[in-house]
Amino acid sequence: MKLQTVLATVSCLLATADAHYLFGRIILDGKWSSTWEYTRQISPSASISDPQTALVAPNTDPDSLDLVCGRNASVSWAPIKTAVIQAGDTIGFGIGEPVLSGDYSAMYHPGYASAWLSKSPTDDLEEYIGDGDWFKILSVTGRTEQSRNFSDPEWAKYYDQFKARWGTFRLDSYNFTVPATTPPGKYLLRFEHIFPNPTDTQFYVNCAHVEIVNNGESGIPGPTTKIPGVYTRGQPDVYFLTYDLSDEEVENFIPPPPIVWEG
Ligand SMILES: *[C@@H]1O[C@H](CO)[C@@H](O)[C@H](O)[C@H]1NC(C)=O
Ligand SMILES: *[C@@H]1O[C@H](CO)[C@@H](O)[C@H](O)[C@H]1NC(C)=O
Ligand SMILES: *[C@@H]1O[C@H](CO)[C@@H](O)[C@H](O)[C@H]1NC(C)=O
Ligand SMILES: [Cu+2]
């Protein structure tokens, strides 16, 4: 068991140079959008020379403004559309270009995902830098009905007994419901996939512009938090080695606060 853990860790670190991804597309009315059609463009990492790798590289600084919507995207600097969605309806995020060659066109790393909303104080989403209150509307930790079926011959080759315990492992998208009592308005809709590591946890984050329509009852979303500020370097539910958890611990894993607002 000890040796297995060491081997698995080494292969993970070797793979991380290329094994990155971003969520440049949304799934609206059951259809995949184009990359950056509704999602804020991000900038390449200045420290990586290959342009594709530079774009998909994750943020590893929990205190950076890049934690809001991805690298250099707390400001909206390229025109995008606003997706109109009815409170209670389903929306999703999907992997966008560039998709790195090889086996990486998916949430390649083990870890957990979440989706968040933050209401723009004005009608102009382009102007909103995401410094208001955020609430969580989705949390995926262990396996769900959307998880890959690794008994299926198409996916069996990607099976890994440690990584497959996490619900998003090897998925190229995730769909979820906007709570039915979400107050109407213009929002940043943020998707986050976290690959925990003891020292440099990777944050994969992107944001879409959405207008939520709700002619019915509105609730009071909460609990809320600020981003950055939601995570502290070293906090044990963000900074850990996934291989060190037992199957039961992954199944019962409690993600970092805040809890999901169900509406
Ligand atoms: C999310 O929905 C889209 C559109 O129906 C679908 O292509 C995709 O496979 C779904 N994702 C998952 C993980 O089920
Ligand atoms: C960040 O975005 C600004 C526009 O807001 C752009 O002018 C600048 O070049 C970008 N920075 C990097 C490092 O890509
Ligand atoms: C998973 O795939 C196997 C093999 O194709 C199939 O027999 C099984 O029904 C699938 N399970 C689910 C939950 O779809
Ligand atoms: Cu990676």
From TrEMBL:
This protein's superkingdom?
Answer: Eukaryota
Q: What is this protein called?
A: lytic cellulose monooxygenase (C4-dehydrogenating)
InterPro entries (UniProt xref): AA9, AA9_LPMO
**Example of a GO MF term:** metal ion binding
Q: Which reaction equation describes what this protein catalyses?
A: [(1->4)-beta-D-glucosyl]n+m + reduced acceptor + O2 = 4-dehydro-beta-D-glucosyl-[(1->4)-beta-D-glucosyl]n-1 + [(1->4)-beta-D-glucosyl]m + acceptor + H2O
Signal peptide segment:
1-19
Q: Which organism is it from?
A: Clonostachys chloroleuca
Give start and end of each Auxiliary Activity family 9 catalytic domain: 20-244
